[in-house]
Amino acid sequence: MTDPGSEPLANLLREDRRFAPPAGLAASANVKADAYRAATADREGFWAKQADRLTWAKRWDKVLDWSDAPFAKWFTGGRINAAYNCVDRHVEAGRGDKVAIHWVGEPLDDTRDITYAQLQDEVCRAANALTALGVGTGDRVAIYLPMIPEAVVAMLACARIGAPHTVVFGGFSADALASRIEDCRAKVVITADGGYRRGTASALKPAVDEARTKTDKIEKVLVVRRTGQDLGEDGWDDATDIWWHDAVGSASPDHIPEAFDAEHPLYVMYTSGTTGTPKGILHTTGGYLTGVSYTHDAVFDLKPDTDVYWCTADIGWVTGHSYIVYGPLANGATQVLYEGTPDSPDPGRWWRIIQDYGVTLFYTAPTAIRSFMKQGDEIPGSFDLSSLRILGSVGEPINPEAYVWYREVIGGGRTPVVDTWWQTETGAVMMSPLPGVTAGKPGSAMSAIPGVGVDVVDDGGRSVPNGSGGYLVVTSPWPSMLRTVWGDDDRYVETYWSRFPATGERGAYYFAGDGAKKDADGDIWVLGRVDDVMNVSGHRLSTTEIESALVSHPKVAEAAVVGATDADTGQAVVAYVILRNEAGDGGPLIVKELSDHVRKEIGPIAKPRQIMIVPELPKTRSGKIMRRLLRDVAEGRAVGDTQTLADASIMDLIAAGQAAST
Ligand code: WT7
User: Would you indicate the residue range of the signal peptide (predicted)?
Assistant: First the structure.
C-alpha cells in the first residue's frame, strides 16, 4: 500500500483561500446548514424524507434492514419503477412539453431537443421492443452505445421492464465487452453502427461482432443507425441483428410500468479493482434512486424550472448513470447531452454549447479543466458564460490551481465549485461542499453531505486527529451503496468490509480504497488511491489488469505497472516489461507493439504513457514486486529505500534505462 501522506500532496494543505457562497444562492438554496443537524439526529428519518422525493407504487415498511450486514436492504417492502419516476410522472404532472434533453451531436448543427413526453413515447416503445425480443424481468442487457439519446432511452427501457443493464463504455475493446457480457450473462446487446469522435465516424458494431466470437451468451443485437456507415457484407447477421428503428419504431408507445421491489437490481457497472478481473458493482432500485435524486438536488441546488444542467461524463461510467440519467431525470431537469470530444471541431466547442443553451449547472472532471487551462483564458473568454451559477468537479483530486482557474475563468469568479467525492460503489456523491452553505477550499471535497458519515482513520480504524492522514472510510450504510459484487458476495465482503471490521463499540466501516487527510479545521482532502488502482484522467484502471494484458503478449515474460503522477492526466500508466529470452530485444517496434496490444485487450484509455523494456524487476526476497521503487523511477525521483530488495543493483539498471529513454 502507498503511504497516504506522500510529500507532493502535503503541499495541498498549505492552501488557505476560501470562497463563501454568493448571498443570493445561500438565501434560496435547496439545502441549508440545518440539514446536517437534522440528518445526524435521525439518519434513517432523514433518508425516509429523501425517499419521499420519489413516487412509490407501494410505500416501504422499513427504511433500513442491516440485520445481515454488510448486505443492506433499503426501503424494504417498497415497490417502485425507476423509469416511471424519471419520465412518466413528470408528464402526468403536466410537464410533458418540458425539454428533458438538449442533445448535441458532434457534427455541428446535428441537434435534437427531446421533451419528457417524447422521452416517454420512446422509452415505452423500446420497453415493448425488448419484451418482444424475449427480455424478461431479471434478464441482463448490455448497452454499448455512443452518447446519443438512444443510450438514455435504452437504459430507461431496461429499468422499466426490470431488466438490469450493464453499460459498457464505447471506448472499451471487444475483449472487454465480451468478458463483461460473459460475467453477467447478458442475452441482448444494444449498440450502434458507430459514433462520431473528433470529426470522423468510428465503428462500434464490429466490436460486438468480435465479442460474439468470444462469448456465446448473446442472443440478439439491437443496432441503432447513427452514422449510416457501411457495415460490410460480414457485418450483419440476420439471425441475431435487428435495427433499432425497425424494432422500436414499430413497437407500441403504450406500456404500463410494473412496480418492482425496492431491492430489485437496477444495473451492474463494471469497475477495476486490485485484481485482474473487473468487478460488477450491483446497484438496486429504491435506495439508489433516492440517493441520486437527493444528491443531484442538494449538491447542484437544482431549480428544475430555470436551470439547464450539463454533465460531460460518458454514459458508460457511473457518473453518466447517476448524474445524466437517473438523478437529473428523476428530478425533472432539463439537460444537455453531448456526443463528442471537447475540442471538436475547435477548442471552443464546450463553451459554445454553454453559451448556446444557457447552461447554468456544469459538471466535469479535473483532467478536462487542466487541458483547457493549458490552452489559455482566451478561448473561453470569447464566449458568454454568464449563465453559469454552479460548477462541479468529479473523478480525481482537483489541484487548487485548476480549481481557481475553473472558478475565475469559467465561472467569472461568481460560481461555487463543488468538488464531489464518490465512487462507482457509492452510487452517489458522498462528500462535497454544499453550494449555498459551505465556504469552499480549493482542492478539498470538504466533508460528508447530510445523511452520510465519513471519517479518516488509522490502520487500526481509529479516527485520526485534525492535521493527520489515513484511510477514507464510510461509517454507516447509505441508500445508494453497492449491494454486492455481481456473482461474488465474498469479494464484496472481502474488498470493502474486512479492512475495518466491527469492534465492540461500532459496526464495520466501508473501506473506500482512498487515502485522505484532515486539515486543521477537520475538512477532508482526498489524496488518491492506496491500493493497486490508478486514476488516469478520472478513469479507474487496475495495475494488475494492465499487467495481465501485457503478459498475454507472446513476447512478454513479466510486467509491472505503476501509476505515475502526471500533470495532465493526474496519473499515467507506466509499464516495466521483461521480454522472453526467445524474443531477443523484441525488435525496433516492440514498444508500439505492446502498446497496441494493451489497447486491443482493454481499450485506448489503458494505453501506457511509457513502456520500459527492463532486464529485471525489483523484488523482495519473497518475490513481491516493489512498485514503490518503480514509481520513484517513473516520477523522476531518487529511488527510495532498497534494503528489502533481493538484488539492489537492479534499481540502478532500471533507473539508467529510464534516463536513457527520456
Ligand atoms: C475513485 C472512484 C465518482 C465517479 C467517477 C469516478 C477518485 C473520485 C474524487 C474527488 C478525489 C476522487 C477516488 C475514488 N475520485 N472523485 N472529488 N476527489 N478523488 O468513479 O471510477 O469509481 O473512481 O475516483 O480515488 O476512489 P470511479
Answer: none
Quick one: pLDDT at residue 58?
98
Q: Give pLDDT, residue 660.
A: 62
Nearest CA to ligand 1 atom 18: 397
Ligand 1 binding pocket includes 424 (Cβ within 6 Å):
yes
What is the whole-number distance in angstroms between the Cα of residue 474 and the centre of ligand 1?
14
ipTM of the complex: 0.99
Residues listed for the chain: 662
Neighbours of 117 (CB within 10 A): 17
Evaluate whether 633 touches 573 at the Cβ level (below 8 Å): no
**pLDDT single digits (tens) 442-471:** 999 999 999 999 999 999 999 999 999 999
Closest atom of ligand 1 to 318 CA is 4
From 517, 526, 543, 565, give the residue whose CB has the most ligand 1 atoms within 8 Å, as the site to mutate. 526
Ligand 1 site, residue 60, Cβ cutoff 6 A: no
The candidate with the shortest Cα–Cα distance to 28, out of 290, 303, 378, is 303
pTM of the predicted protein model:
0.92
Nearest CA to ligand 1 atom 8: 395
- How confident is the model at residue 3, as a pLDDT? 46
- Distance, in Å, from the CA atom of 263 to the CA atom of 261, rounded to the nearest integer, reads 5
| Closest C-alpha to ligand 1, atom 6 | 395
CA separation for the pair 179, 163 (Å, rounded): 19
Neighbouring residues of 428: CB distance < 8 A, sequence distance ≥ 6: 288, 291, 292, 294, 295, 322, 327, 422, 478, 480
User: CA-to-CA distance for 488 and 362, rounded, in angstroms?
Assistant: 36
